[in-house]
């Protein structure tokens, strides 16, 4: 090695040493590998609703808010899978219900948007931030109204969630139900609930069009009646 180095530049010598000398795997690298294995086990158990493995991973020191490559916590992964037992275990172990992934979804927000009512209730009991918003600037109520999750909308309206919150598109939850719904019984029920909870039916979108005007344009007779009659 000395014979090589005395004829070359220091940088060349260092390169030769890197290429010739065997890599050294120290205790820190081994510890990192062990931690990665534990985290993988935790995330997989959350996804598969594997209660025993999940409890064991937590007991062995796996961080309860471990994340995958997309920034999803174990609890958010369980929420995606509607893994109710796993969600319950993680929340009981102190999982943060408000941590967001790279799409700005939290367990609370995703549960609301996808109609995961039981998990949604658990996240709110555990301190979900009712004013937090998704990537479109909507609260959990907004996409719940959009997707026709009647039970979720009904439950959220029993909380302190802001019923007249306006998202980045200029829409309230009431507006979402009118614009993105089909005018059928499900969306009639969803329109009725925020109205009965005191929602402001006169909040227009960014074009100045109210929910009533949208309903009339779309021929949603029953929704028009609700918007005209319920005060």
Verbal overview:
With 231 residues, the protein is mainly alpha-helical. It has two domains: 36-129, Ankyrin repeat-containing domain (Serine Threonine Protein Phosphatase 5, Tetratricopeptide repeat); 142-231, Serine Threonine Protein Phosphatase 5, Tetratricopeptide repeat, CATH 1.25.40.20. It has helices spanning 2-5, 10-20, 27-48, 51-59, 74-80, 84-92, 107-114, 117-125, 141-146, 150-156, 173-180, 185-196, 211-218, 221-229. Helix 5 (74-80) runs parallel beside helix 7. The termini are far apart.
**Series of H and E elements:** HHHHHHHHHHHHHH
E-strand count: 0
**How much is the average pLDDT?**
89
Principal-axis shape equals: elongated
CATH topology of the largest domain: Serine Threonine Protein Phosphatase 5, Tetratricopeptide repeat
* C-alpha-based Rg, rounded: 26 Å
What's the CATH C level of the largest domain?
Mainly Alpha
- Total helices: the number is 14
Structural class label = mainly alpha
The fraction of residues assigned to DSSP E strands is under 5%
Instruction: Profile the largest sheet.
Output: none
Low-pLDDT windows of residues: 1-8, 10-22, 25-33
C-alpha termini separation: 89 Å
Number of self-contained structural domains: 2
Name of the CATH architecture of the largest domain = Alpha Horseshoe
CATH superfamily of the largest domain: Ankyrin repeat-containing domain
């Amino acid at each position: 090695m000395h014979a090589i180095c005395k004829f070359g530049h220091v940088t060349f010598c260092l390169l030769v040493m890197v290429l010739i000398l065997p890599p050294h795997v120290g205790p820190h690298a081994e510890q990192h590998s062990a931690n990665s294995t534990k985290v993988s086990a935790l995330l997989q158990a959350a996804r598969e609703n594997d209660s025993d493995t999940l409890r064991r991973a937590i007991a062995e020191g796996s961080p309860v808010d471990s994340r995958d490559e997309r920034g999803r916590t174990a609890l958010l992964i369980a929420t995606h899978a509607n893994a109710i037992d796993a969600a319950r275990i993680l929340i009981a172990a102190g999982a943060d219900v408000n941590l967001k992934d790279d799409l700005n979804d939290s367990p609370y927000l995703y549960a609301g948007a996808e109609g995961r009512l039981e998990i949604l209730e658990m996240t709110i009991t555990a301190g979900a931030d009712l004013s937090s918003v998704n990537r479109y600037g909507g609260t959990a109520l907004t996409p719940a109204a959009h997707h026709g999750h009647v039970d979720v909308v009904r439950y959220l309206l029993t909380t302190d969630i802001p019923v007249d919150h306006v998202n980045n598109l200029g829409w309230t939850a009431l507006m979402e139900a009118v614009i993105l719904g089909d005018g059928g019984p499900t969306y009639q029920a969803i329109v009725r609930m925020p109205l009965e909870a005191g929602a402001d039916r006169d909040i227009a979108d960014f074009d100045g069009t109210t929910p009533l005007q949208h309903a009339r344009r779309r021929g949603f007779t029953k929704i028009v009646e609700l918007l005209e009659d319920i005060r």
